[in-house]
Amino acid sequence: MVLAEGSSAPPHPTSVVRLLVTAGDAILVVPRPDGRGLDIPTALVATDVEATLQDLRSRFLTGEVTPRLLGFVRNTVTAASGGYEWPVPVAHFVLWHCEVGKGEARQGRWLGRPDAATQLAERHWWPLVGQVSPDLA
After folding, report:
1. Distance between CA 87 and CA 92 in Å, rounded?
2. How far apart are CA 107 and CA 16, in angstroms?
């Protein structure tokens, strides 16, 4: 389930933090650690959601920007099986957004709208991109 959120507090439990960084109609992307294409900056939450978000921001961005909570994906699984590694019965994968200038990225590369849609539209968080700008999604 993908939900847009109007709150500034992430839901509990949050397992993954993602940072959607935009510059106009471009999205900052990085290679996925598993080698399956591109994704937005992402980190597993060890203990603290806010610290995880700030770590992502400082690793990928040069300026002081305050990301806003865009929404989240909620996984509901009654019984884990076959390598499912997230909390049961509910796990949240939270998406934060910030708008920056293209020169404010420490790493990664920018994908314009058509390429971003082609390469990222299958990601489970993609429907939330329309909350930032209908032109991006």
Report:
1. 9
2. 20
